[in-house]
Amino acid sequence: MKMSYKKRIVIFLVSIFFLSVLVFAMSRLAPGDPLVSYYGERAERMSVEEKERAMNRLGLNEPIIVQYGKWIQNAAQGDFGISFKYKQDVLQVIEGRLVNTLILGGVGFLLTFFFALLLGIWCAFYEDKLLDRIICKVGTITSCIPEFWLSLVLILVFSVNLKLLPGSGAYDIGQSDNLASRMQHLILPLIVVIMSHLWYYAYMIRNKLLEEIRQDYVLLARAKGMSAGKIMFGHCVRNIMPAFISIMAISLPHIVEGTYIVEMVFSYPGIGTLSFESAKYHDYNMLMVLCLITGVIVIFGNITGQAISEHIDPRMKEPVRMEEVTDSDGR
Amino acid sequence: MTADEKFELVGAGYLDTVPDVHQKENWWKGKPVCSAVILGMIILACVGCRFFMTHDPTYLDLAHYNLAPGGEFWFGTDTMGRDIYSMILYGGRISLFIGALSTVISTGIAVVYGALSGIAPGWLDECMMRFTEILLSIPSILIIIFVQALIGKDSIWAIAVVIGITSWMSIAKIVRTEVRQIRESEYVIASRCMGGSFWHILRVHLLPNFVSSIMFMVVMNIRGAIVAESTLSFLGIGLPIEVISWGSMLSLAEKALMTNSWWVILIPGIFLVVTLMCITNIGNYIRKNVNQKQSNL
Question: Domain span at residue A191?
Fold first, then answer.
């Protein structure tokens, strides 16, 4: 039986609720003085009473449940509080950066899966031929390279030595509307995002396809004289599409994580660098919203992916589990 | 068209030569010998780093800073004047130790949590699995940064614990699935009827059954932990720069980029990647489910 859309929405909301509770509890229990991040140096010179007053004003003294209740109340009205560090509305700070992350992550995500599908089909078609073996070996190597190191090497080669591409930021100073400048700054981070995830998914697709071409209908089609290419694209690839979309949905957290790390290394102004900064400076309001945004994107992606693959193939009641299709990585 | 062409057989998969079943197979066939040997050498060199180091890895040799590889300093020196070759051996010990310790922690949590969830009644099982799914939906680097802030220490133990308690979810899910399948088996029920405790059943009946299916994930967890440690240290929220590990060595990369000293970035990174590759190969060997069926295409 297919899950109704109502049930999906309920699951989505409940997940988001628990996520917010979890994130809220974790961020408030963390040590580190949020006053320091709000007032900077001045916090250390404050007297005890002044500190007390400031804590009261920012609502940091009340019990954690009350704080959470207030936060939820305000959030429902679109007010997520002010960032302690930037002294601005949280949404305002995030607004500009979210677009940057969505561009990098979104383009990276689509390109990764486009190339993964191509590579997967290619390797399955030429299974155990020389080229397939070479690609498998090279792929295993690339999937072992940590993102941050790959970024470093690319910066070292392309921006320090060859001076071809910029190694940090999202655009040249004062050129935020210049599309060419943005594209230039996007190339290296994109390469890292794609390179570090490509083989992982290409290998999954390859294995799914290898299972598929061992099915009996392939033999039948072959016996009737259909060409290998036609069978591959007309039947096999179509048949693994639901699994492909499920893999795409499951992969979201990994690609998001990769994007964040890449952002941090390239100091690309996006959600990743922002969340790293806010964790470092105990900027609670900011951190909560960032985690929630990430969670919403990922959970939404998961549920949509499941819905789409069920729509294509009603037999897919059970979602594809990572561990069943994984072969080259284990997280 | 000749008769032969008309009756072309498809998909029958002729064997050109009859395989000699009695031929003695080489014992290393299909085993990741190369990876195991390289990994063994790296581990050995790191554990016994005292015998292989040519310099004191913590000594800041200000007369020889930022030197290219060669002569006295085999892999060069970093921007603080430390010998990179000695640092790699010395720091590898810490990186590998963190990888091993955090895997032990995460596997321990995963086995207990997964077994509890598998044995628990339906609704509780559902709740526990939802919880892991929510945790899995947050990118692990964010959780690690979070918990790192929570613990607030940057010692080796703290980092290992942080990575350990943030990477158990996927193993727990497998354990749970496996336990679900075998929990109704007669021997488990019999053991329960005879008053076997949770720990007894887990140790004697459940663990031997699912240990092979989580082995691959466990090995991959070592790799994940090493990557996590080096990423954290590189970003400056893991180990401090005085504690030498492969990650904290790479945190000098920014300075190295400015002076274009490639050896500071490339050499420790290559060691890191080679180690990760060996672990992956061994993991894949454990995982290997060779598909013997012939292709129909």
Answer: 90-319
